Amino acid sequence: MPAEFIYLASQSPRRRQLLEQMGIAHRLLLPDESEDAEALETVLPGEPPEAYVRRVTGLKLEAAVARLARRGLPVAPVLCSDTTVALDGTIHGKPADVDDAVRMLSAMAGQRHQVLTAVSVAPGGAAPALQALSVSDVTFAAMSPAQIQAYVASGEPMGKAGAYAIQGRAAAHIAHISGSYTGIMGLPVFETAGLLRQIGFVL
Fold first, then answer.
1. CATH code, 117
2. pTM value?
3. Residue 134 within any structural domain of the chain
4. Which of 17, 33, 116, 191 is the most buried (most CB within 10 A)?
5. For residues 62-90, b (16+ Cβ closer than 10 Å) or e, as one string?
6. How many domains are there within the chain?
7. Could you confirm whether 82 is annotated as catalytic?
8. Does the residue 153 lie in any domain?
């Protein structure tokens, strides 16, 4: 019998929106104040982008499953997702500050980069976790320093991998994408639906 809902271990409103678009009932399973969620996103020396995003998503899922058990909540599948941006193999995570956001956007302007989003689902019980990966190419048009400063001043880049949100103002500077638009947003719908079908959801 498939679960009636899943837990989403993410604070991202975009991921919630995409689950709603899929018709998946979900409840949030967010970290406690005592958990250092940011520490899970530390890049290991020499770690390739694909290995990084897969590892971090797996760690976030493990932490969420432990959180679920600790809180004594009803058992249901748990879904985690993590997105990273890579330019020429270099990982661009969330900008530390305004200057960092300017640096990232200046490097990516006029260039093609990759957006990698991994999705992991813990079905519940003894069943092993499942994972899928979406990789997309995004090409930015050339951007002037004034355009970059104006975009950073909007506040949109903060808290976003690669210092931009494709569904926001950055779309005006994106010349081409190849891959999954929803994956670039942070939750690839096709890959997520595939994982959920494997654990019994009818989509």
1. 3.90.950.10
2. 0.94
3. yes
4. 116
5. bbbbebbeeeeeeebbbbbbbbbbbbeee
6. 1
7. yes
8. yes
